[in-house]
Amino acid sequence: MCYAIPGKVVEINDKIITVEYFGEQKKARNEFYNLALGEYIYAQGGLVIQRISEREALPVLESWKEMFHELAQVDKNLARETKTMYEKANAVRHKYSGNSCCVHGIIEFSNYCKHNCLYCGLRKDNKQLKRYQMEPDEIIQSAADAINLHGFKALVLQSGEDDSYTAEIMGSVVKSIMEKTPILLILSVGEKDISFYKRLYDEGARGVLLRFETSNPQLYKKMKPDSDFNKRLELIKQLRDMGYLIFTGFLAGLPGQTREDLENDIKLTTALGTDMFSFGPFIPHPQTPLANENKPSLELALNAIAKARLACPEAKILVTTSLETLDKENGAKSGLMAGGNSLMINLTPEKYRKLYEIYPQRAGTDIKVTANISRVIALLRSIGRAPTDLGI
Ligand code: 5AD
Ligand code: SF4
Protein backbone atom coordinates (compact mmCIF):
# COMPACT_ATOMS: atom_id res chain seq x y z
CA MET A 1 0.00 0.00 0.00
CA CYS A 2 1.23 3.52 -0.57
CA TYR A 3 0.32 6.42 1.60
CA ALA A 4 -1.71 8.28 -0.97
CA ILE A 5 -4.28 7.46 -3.60
CA PRO A 6 -4.12 9.51 -6.82
CA GLY A 7 -7.06 11.78 -7.54
CA LYS A 8 -8.51 13.04 -10.83
CA VAL A 9 -8.85 16.78 -11.40
CA VAL A 10 -12.54 17.48 -12.08
CA GLU A 11 -12.77 21.23 -11.52
CA ILE A 12 -10.28 24.10 -11.59
CA ASN A 13 -10.96 27.39 -9.94
CA ASP A 14 -7.71 29.30 -10.16
CA LYS A 15 -5.50 27.83 -7.39
CA ILE A 16 -8.27 25.74 -5.83
CA ILE A 17 -9.04 22.51 -7.62
CA THR A 18 -11.58 19.76 -7.01
CA VAL A 19 -10.19 16.25 -7.01
CA GLU A 20 -12.19 13.05 -7.26
CA TYR A 21 -11.31 9.81 -5.46
CA PHE A 22 -13.66 6.95 -6.36
CA GLY A 23 -16.62 9.29 -6.66
CA GLU A 24 -15.75 11.37 -3.55
CA GLN A 25 -14.72 14.97 -4.10
CA LYS A 26 -12.12 16.89 -2.11
CA LYS A 27 -10.62 20.32 -2.61
CA ALA A 28 -6.90 20.94 -2.89
CA ARG A 29 -4.66 23.96 -3.36
CA ASN A 30 -2.48 23.87 -6.46
CA GLU A 31 0.51 26.17 -6.57
CA PHE A 32 3.12 24.15 -8.44
CA TYR A 33 1.49 22.85 -11.65
CA ASN A 34 -0.37 24.07 -14.69
CA LEU A 35 -3.12 21.47 -14.51
CA ALA A 36 -5.85 20.54 -16.97
CA LEU A 37 -9.17 18.82 -16.29
CA GLY A 38 -8.87 15.02 -16.29
CA GLU A 39 -5.22 14.98 -15.13
CA TYR A 40 -4.13 12.92 -12.11
CA ILE A 41 -2.40 14.26 -9.04
CA TYR A 42 -1.29 13.32 -5.55
CA ALA A 43 -2.36 15.71 -2.82
CA GLN A 44 -1.26 15.75 0.82
CA GLY A 45 -2.66 17.95 3.53
CA GLY A 46 -4.87 19.64 0.93
CA LEU A 47 -1.87 20.62 -1.24
CA VAL A 48 -1.15 19.24 -4.71
CA ILE A 49 2.35 17.78 -4.44
CA GLN A 50 2.75 15.74 -7.64
CA ARG A 51 1.23 15.53 -11.07
CA ILE A 52 1.29 11.98 -12.46
CA SER A 53 0.49 10.49 -15.83
CA GLU A 54 -2.67 8.50 -16.46
CA ARG A 55 -0.42 5.52 -17.22
CA GLU A 56 0.97 5.69 -13.68
CA ALA A 57 -2.31 6.55 -11.97
CA LEU A 58 -4.63 3.92 -13.44
CA PRO A 59 -2.88 0.79 -12.10
CA VAL A 60 -2.72 2.33 -8.61
CA LEU A 61 -6.41 3.22 -8.76
CA GLU A 62 -7.24 -0.25 -10.09
CA SER A 63 -5.39 -1.88 -7.19
CA TRP A 64 -7.35 0.24 -4.72
CA LYS A 65 -10.78 0.26 -6.32
CA GLU A 66 -12.39 -2.75 -4.71
CA MET A 67 -10.68 -2.35 -1.38
CA PHE A 68 -11.55 1.36 -1.20
CA HIS A 69 -15.27 0.65 -1.33
CA GLU A 70 -14.95 -2.17 1.21
CA LEU A 71 -13.01 0.09 3.58
CA ALA A 72 -15.51 2.92 3.16
CA GLN A 73 -18.29 0.51 4.14
CA VAL A 74 -16.42 -0.69 7.24
CA ASP A 75 -15.88 2.93 8.31
CA LYS A 76 -19.52 3.79 7.67
CA ASN A 77 -20.72 0.90 9.82
CA LEU A 78 -18.34 1.79 12.65
CA ALA A 79 -19.44 5.44 12.56
CA ARG A 80 -23.12 4.60 13.10
CA GLU A 81 -22.98 4.45 16.90
CA THR A 82 -23.41 7.85 18.57
CA LYS A 83 -23.95 7.12 22.25
CA THR A 84 -20.62 8.03 23.86
CA MET A 85 -18.66 11.24 23.28
CA TYR A 86 -16.01 9.23 21.39
CA GLU A 87 -18.66 7.70 19.13
CA LYS A 88 -20.20 11.12 18.49
CA ALA A 89 -16.78 12.52 17.59
CA ASN A 90 -16.11 9.56 15.30
CA ALA A 91 -19.44 10.07 13.54
CA VAL A 92 -18.60 13.75 13.00
CA ARG A 93 -15.17 12.80 11.63
CA HIS A 94 -16.82 10.35 9.24
CA LYS A 95 -19.41 12.90 8.13
CA TYR A 96 -16.89 15.64 7.33
CA SER A 97 -13.83 13.77 6.07
CA GLY A 98 -15.05 10.29 5.18
CA ASN A 99 -12.58 7.48 5.68
CA SER A 100 -9.52 9.51 4.58
CA CYS A 101 -6.48 9.18 6.78
CA CYS A 102 -3.10 10.84 6.27
CA VAL A 103 -0.05 8.76 7.05
CA HIS A 104 3.07 10.88 7.34
CA GLY A 105 6.60 9.70 8.02
CA ILE A 106 8.96 11.38 10.47
CA ILE A 107 12.76 11.48 10.43
CA GLU A 108 14.38 12.76 13.62
CA PHE A 109 17.77 14.00 12.48
CA SER A 110 19.33 15.52 15.63
CA ASN A 111 18.61 15.19 19.35
CA TYR A 112 20.72 18.18 20.37
CA CYS A 113 18.73 21.00 21.91
CA LYS A 114 19.75 24.35 23.33
CA HIS A 115 16.60 24.60 25.49
CA ASN A 116 15.61 23.27 28.86
CA CYS A 117 11.88 22.58 28.70
CA LEU A 118 10.99 20.94 32.00
CA TYR A 119 9.08 18.05 30.41
CA CYS A 120 11.44 17.01 27.64
CA GLY A 121 14.15 14.36 27.68
CA LEU A 122 16.14 16.23 25.01
CA ARG A 123 16.60 19.22 27.33
CA LYS A 124 20.15 20.56 27.35
CA ASP A 125 20.74 19.64 31.01
CA ASN A 126 20.03 15.95 30.43
CA LYS A 127 23.68 14.92 30.38
CA GLN A 128 22.83 11.20 30.42
CA LEU A 129 21.41 11.27 26.90
CA LYS A 130 23.77 10.19 24.13
CA ARG A 131 23.47 12.88 21.46
CA TYR A 132 23.55 12.42 17.67
CA GLN A 133 23.43 14.56 14.55
CA MET A 134 22.72 13.10 11.14
CA GLU A 135 24.86 14.35 8.27
CA PRO A 136 22.95 16.24 5.54
CA ASP A 137 23.58 13.33 3.14
CA GLU A 138 22.20 10.88 5.70
CA ILE A 139 19.01 12.96 6.03
CA ILE A 140 18.66 13.08 2.25
CA GLN A 141 19.24 9.31 1.98
CA SER A 142 16.69 8.56 4.74
CA ALA A 143 14.13 10.73 2.98
CA ALA A 144 14.89 9.00 -0.35
CA ASP A 145 14.35 5.61 1.31
CA ALA A 146 11.09 6.79 2.86
CA ILE A 147 9.87 8.03 -0.52
CA ASN A 148 11.23 5.34 -2.85
CA LEU A 149 11.27 2.19 -0.73
CA HIS A 150 8.28 2.85 1.49
CA GLY A 151 6.11 5.09 -0.70
CA PHE A 152 5.70 8.09 1.64
CA LYS A 153 4.37 11.32 0.15
CA ALA A 154 4.64 13.48 3.27
CA LEU A 155 7.63 13.66 5.59
CA VAL A 156 8.42 15.56 8.77
CA LEU A 157 12.07 16.47 9.37
CA GLN A 158 12.39 16.90 13.13
CA SER A 159 15.15 17.88 15.55
CA GLY A 160 15.71 19.58 18.87
CA GLU A 161 16.62 23.26 18.57
CA ASP A 162 20.02 22.67 17.07
CA ASP A 163 21.64 25.77 15.57
CA SER A 164 24.30 23.82 13.73
CA TYR A 165 21.72 23.11 11.02
CA THR A 166 21.84 26.52 9.34
CA ALA A 167 19.51 27.85 6.66
CA GLU A 168 22.20 26.96 4.07
CA ILE A 169 22.50 23.36 5.26
CA MET A 170 18.76 22.73 5.65
CA GLY A 171 18.01 24.69 2.47
CA SER A 172 20.21 22.34 0.47
CA VAL A 173 18.70 19.28 2.21
CA VAL A 174 15.16 20.41 1.34
CA LYS A 175 16.21 21.31 -2.21
CA SER A 176 17.84 17.96 -2.79
CA ILE A 177 14.81 16.01 -1.47
CA MET A 178 12.31 18.10 -3.44
CA GLU A 179 14.13 18.05 -6.76
CA LYS A 180 14.19 14.25 -6.86
CA THR A 181 10.53 13.65 -5.93
CA PRO A 182 8.24 16.40 -4.67
CA ILE A 183 6.50 15.58 -1.39
CA LEU A 184 4.80 17.51 1.38
CA LEU A 185 7.86 18.39 3.44
CA ILE A 186 7.15 19.49 6.99
CA LEU A 187 9.75 21.11 9.26
CA SER A 188 9.78 20.50 13.00
CA VAL A 189 12.92 22.30 14.08
CA GLY A 190 11.70 24.87 16.61
CA GLU A 191 11.95 28.64 16.77
CA LYS A 192 14.29 29.60 13.94
CA ASP A 193 14.59 33.05 12.35
CA ILE A 194 11.96 34.01 9.86
CA SER A 195 14.73 34.16 7.20
CA PHE A 196 15.49 30.48 7.86
CA TYR A 197 11.87 29.54 7.25
CA LYS A 198 11.67 31.80 4.18
CA ARG A 199 14.72 30.13 2.65
CA LEU A 200 13.28 26.64 3.22
CA TYR A 201 9.89 27.70 1.88
CA ASP A 202 11.64 28.87 -1.28
CA GLU A 203 13.27 25.45 -1.58
CA GLY A 204 9.85 23.77 -1.38
CA ALA A 205 9.07 23.02 2.29
CA ARG A 206 5.37 23.62 2.86
CA GLY A 207 4.57 22.53 6.43
CA VAL A 208 5.75 23.57 9.89
CA LEU A 209 5.13 21.53 13.01
CA LEU A 210 5.53 23.85 15.98
CA ARG A 211 3.39 23.29 19.04
CA PHE A 212 2.53 26.19 21.32
CA GLU A 213 2.58 23.52 24.08
CA THR A 214 0.10 25.28 26.41
CA SER A 215 -2.24 28.24 25.98
CA ASN A 216 -1.71 29.29 29.61
CA PRO A 217 1.13 31.88 29.59
CA GLN A 218 2.02 31.29 33.27
CA LEU A 219 2.22 27.53 32.80
CA TYR A 220 4.23 28.13 29.61
CA LYS A 221 6.77 30.24 31.52
CA LYS A 222 7.14 27.45 34.10
CA MET A 223 7.47 24.67 31.54
CA LYS A 224 9.63 26.55 29.02
CA PRO A 225 11.63 28.99 31.15
CA ASP A 226 13.91 30.00 28.28
CA SER A 227 11.24 30.68 25.65
CA ASP A 228 8.70 33.46 25.17
CA PHE A 229 5.04 32.53 24.73
CA ASN A 230 4.03 35.57 22.66
CA LYS A 231 7.06 35.28 20.44
CA ARG A 232 6.21 31.66 19.70
CA LEU A 233 2.60 32.47 18.85
CA GLU A 234 3.76 35.35 16.66
CA LEU A 235 6.14 33.04 14.80
CA ILE A 236 3.35 30.51 14.17
CA LYS A 237 1.19 33.28 12.71
CA GLN A 238 4.02 34.62 10.55
CA LEU A 239 4.69 31.14 9.18
CA ARG A 240 1.04 30.67 8.39
CA ASP A 241 1.04 34.02 6.57
CA MET A 242 4.15 32.96 4.65
CA GLY A 243 2.10 30.08 3.25
CA TYR A 244 3.16 27.16 5.41
CA LEU A 245 0.60 24.58 6.47
CA ILE A 246 0.56 24.81 10.25
CA PHE A 247 0.73 21.72 12.46
CA THR A 248 0.36 22.84 16.05
CA GLY A 249 -1.16 21.97 19.39
CA PHE A 250 -0.35 21.28 23.01
CA LEU A 251 0.58 18.81 25.69
CA ALA A 252 -2.34 17.29 27.57
CA GLY A 253 -1.88 16.48 31.25
CA LEU A 254 1.02 18.79 32.11
CA PRO A 255 1.45 19.21 35.89
CA GLY A 256 -0.60 22.22 37.01
CA GLN A 257 -2.74 22.25 33.86
CA THR A 258 -6.45 22.70 34.54
CA ARG A 259 -9.48 21.47 32.64
CA GLU A 260 -10.08 25.08 31.58
CA ASP A 261 -6.52 25.29 30.26
CA LEU A 262 -7.19 22.25 28.08
CA GLU A 263 -10.36 23.81 26.73
CA ASN A 264 -8.39 26.95 25.92
CA ASP A 265 -5.70 24.81 24.27
CA ILE A 266 -8.28 23.46 21.84
CA LYS A 267 -9.65 26.97 21.23
CA LEU A 268 -6.19 28.38 20.58
CA THR A 269 -5.35 25.55 18.16
CA THR A 270 -8.48 26.44 16.20
CA ALA A 271 -7.92 30.21 16.43
CA LEU A 272 -4.43 29.87 14.94
CA GLY A 273 -5.98 28.58 11.71
CA THR A 274 -4.25 25.25 12.26
CA ASP A 275 -4.13 22.87 9.30
CA MET A 276 -3.32 19.82 11.40
CA PHE A 277 -3.99 19.51 15.13
CA SER A 278 -0.98 17.91 16.80
CA PHE A 279 -1.33 17.30 20.50
CA GLY A 280 -0.64 14.44 22.83
CA PRO A 281 -0.36 13.42 26.45
CA PHE A 282 2.62 14.47 28.57
CA ILE A 283 4.73 11.44 29.58
CA PRO A 284 7.18 12.01 32.45
CA HIS A 285 10.85 11.46 31.64
CA PRO A 286 13.14 10.24 34.46
CA GLN A 287 15.98 12.66 33.61
CA THR A 288 13.84 15.78 33.84
CA PRO A 289 12.55 17.93 36.71
CA LEU A 290 9.09 16.41 36.10
CA ALA A 291 10.31 12.83 36.62
CA ASN A 292 8.02 12.16 39.57
CA GLU A 293 4.85 13.62 38.10
CA ASN A 294 1.96 11.37 37.13
CA LYS A 295 1.29 10.58 33.53
CA PRO A 296 -2.26 11.38 32.44
CA SER A 297 -4.84 8.69 31.73
CA LEU A 298 -5.58 7.55 28.18
CA GLU A 299 -9.08 8.99 28.70
CA LEU A 300 -7.70 12.50 29.18
CA ALA A 301 -5.91 12.29 25.83
CA LEU A 302 -8.91 10.72 24.08
CA ASN A 303 -11.27 13.31 25.55
CA ALA A 304 -9.04 16.05 24.12
CA ILE A 305 -9.24 14.42 20.65
CA ALA A 306 -13.01 14.00 20.85
CA LYS A 307 -13.57 17.56 22.10
CA ALA A 308 -11.31 18.97 19.39
CA ARG A 309 -13.24 17.01 16.76
CA LEU A 310 -16.63 18.18 18.07
CA ALA A 311 -15.40 21.79 18.26
CA CYS A 312 -13.84 21.65 14.81
CA PRO A 313 -15.65 19.09 12.63
CA GLU A 314 -13.45 19.52 9.56
CA ALA A 315 -10.11 19.46 11.35
CA LYS A 316 -7.27 17.16 10.54
CA ILE A 317 -6.33 15.62 13.87
CA LEU A 318 -3.13 13.68 14.34
CA VAL A 319 -3.07 10.69 16.67
CA THR A 320 0.40 10.97 18.20
CA THR A 321 2.62 8.09 19.23
CA SER A 322 2.47 9.25 22.86
CA LEU A 323 -1.05 7.79 22.91
CA GLU A 324 0.43 4.43 22.00
CA THR A 325 2.95 4.83 24.79
CA LEU A 326 0.05 5.21 27.25
CA ASP A 327 -1.64 2.13 25.81
CA LYS A 328 0.50 0.06 23.44
CA GLU A 329 -2.30 -2.21 22.25
CA ASN A 330 -5.14 0.24 21.81
CA GLY A 331 -3.77 3.79 21.92
CA ALA A 332 -3.62 4.47 18.17
CA LYS A 333 -6.90 2.74 17.39
CA SER A 334 -8.72 4.47 20.25
CA GLY A 335 -7.44 7.85 19.04
CA LEU A 336 -8.62 7.18 15.49
CA MET A 337 -11.99 6.05 16.85
CA ALA A 338 -12.37 9.18 19.01
CA GLY A 339 -12.09 11.68 16.15
CA GLY A 340 -8.50 11.36 14.90
CA ASN A 341 -7.76 11.08 11.18
CA SER A 342 -4.01 11.17 10.79
CA LEU A 343 -0.98 9.13 11.88
CA MET A 344 2.78 9.44 11.79
CA ILE A 345 5.24 6.59 11.34
CA ASN A 346 8.75 6.87 12.73
CA LEU A 347 11.32 6.45 9.96
CA THR A 348 14.40 7.60 11.86
CA PRO A 349 17.31 5.23 11.11
CA GLU A 350 17.30 2.43 13.67
CA LYS A 351 20.65 3.33 15.26
CA TYR A 352 19.31 6.76 16.28
CA ARG A 353 15.65 6.06 16.94
CA LYS A 354 15.84 5.21 20.65
CA LEU A 355 18.07 8.25 21.24
CA TYR A 356 15.36 10.73 20.26
CA GLU A 357 13.99 10.23 23.74
CA ILE A 358 11.63 13.15 24.39
CA TYR A 359 9.92 10.68 26.73
CA PRO A 360 10.69 7.03 27.52
CA GLN A 361 9.35 3.96 25.75
CA ARG A 362 8.19 5.78 22.66
CA ALA A 363 6.07 3.57 20.49
CA GLY A 364 7.71 2.58 17.21
CA THR A 365 11.29 2.64 18.55
CA ASP A 366 11.64 -1.10 19.20
CA ILE A 367 10.26 -2.34 15.90
CA LYS A 368 11.65 -2.46 12.34
CA VAL A 369 10.25 0.21 9.99
CA THR A 370 8.72 -2.36 7.65
CA ALA A 371 7.04 -4.20 10.56
CA ASN A 372 5.74 -0.90 11.93
CA ILE A 373 4.33 0.06 8.53
CA SER A 374 2.58 -3.34 8.25
CA ARG A 375 1.13 -2.89 11.73
CA VAL A 376 -0.26 0.55 10.84
CA ILE A 377 -1.69 -0.68 7.53
CA ALA A 378 -3.42 -3.57 9.32
CA LEU A 379 -4.84 -1.15 11.89
CA LEU A 380 -6.16 1.24 9.22
CA ARG A 381 -7.73 -1.63 7.28
CA SER A 382 -9.40 -3.00 10.40
CA ILE A 383 -11.24 0.29 10.90
CA GLY A 384 -11.90 1.07 7.23
CA ARG A 385 -9.55 3.99 6.67
CA ALA A 386 -7.85 4.74 3.33
CA PRO A 387 -5.08 7.17 2.34
CA THR A 388 -7.10 9.52 0.14
CA ASP A 389 -6.17 13.13 0.83
CA LEU A 390 -8.20 14.87 3.53
CA GLY A 391 -8.49 17.96 1.32
CA ILE A 392 -8.86 21.55 2.51
N1 5AD B 1 5.81 13.88 26.80
C1 5AD B 1 5.08 14.07 25.67
N2 5AD B 1 5.44 14.88 24.67
C2 5AD B 1 6.62 15.54 24.81
N3 5AD B 1 7.24 16.43 24.02
C3 5AD B 1 8.40 16.79 24.59
N4 5AD B 1 8.53 16.16 25.77
C4 5AD B 1 7.44 15.38 25.93
C5 5AD B 1 7.00 14.51 26.96
N5 5AD B 1 7.71 14.31 28.07
C6 5AD B 1 6.67 16.95 22.77
C7 5AD B 1 6.52 18.47 22.81
C8 5AD B 1 7.30 18.93 21.60
C9 5AD B 1 7.39 17.69 20.76
C10 5AD B 1 8.53 17.65 19.82
O1 5AD B 1 7.51 16.66 21.69
O2 5AD B 1 5.16 18.82 22.69
O3 5AD B 1 6.70 19.99 20.91
FE1 SF4 C 1 14.14 21.20 23.03
FE2 SF4 C 1 11.72 20.95 21.95
FE3 SF4 C 1 12.52 19.34 23.93
FE4 SF4 C 1 12.01 21.90 24.44
S1 SF4 C 1 10.50 20.35 23.72
S2 SF4 C 1 13.82 20.73 25.16
S3 SF4 C 1 12.71 22.90 22.57
S4 SF4 C 1 13.37 19.43 21.89
Description:
By secondary structure, this protein is an alpha/beta fold. 39% of the residues lie in helices and 19% in strands. It folds into 2 domains: 7-79, SH3 type barrels, CATH 2.30.30; 95-382, TIM Barrel (Alpha-Beta Barrel). The strands form 2 sheets. Strands 6-7-8-9-10-12-13-14 form an 8-stranded parallel barrel, surrounded by 4 helices. A 5-stranded antiparallel beta sheet has the order 3-2-1-4-5. Helix 2 crosses helix 9 (298-311) and helix 8 (259-271) crosses helix 9. The mean pLDDT is 94. Iron/sulfur cluster binds at residues 113, 115, 117, 120, 122-123, 160-161, 190, 358.
Mean of the pLDDT scores?
A: 94
Low-confidence blocks of residues: none
Described by the principal axes of the CA atoms, the overall outline is globular
Distance between the termini: 23 Å
Largest beta-sheet details = 8 strands, parallel, barrel
What is bound: which ligands? Answer: 5'-deoxyadenosine, iron/sulfur cluster
CATH topology of the largest domain: TIM Barrel
CATH architecture of the largest domain: Alpha-Beta Barrel
Looking at this structure, what is the CATH superfamily of the largest domain? Aldolase class I
What is the CA-atom radius of gyration, in angstroms? 20 Å
The counted number of beta strands is: 14
Indicate how many domains the architecture comprises.
2
Counting DSSP H or I runs of 4 or more residues, the number of helices is 13
Strand order of the largest sheet: 6-7-8-9-10-12-13-14
What structural category arises from helix and sheet content?
Answer: alpha/beta
Write down the CATH class of the largest domain.
Answer: Alpha Beta
Task: Give the assembly state of these chains.
Answer: single chain
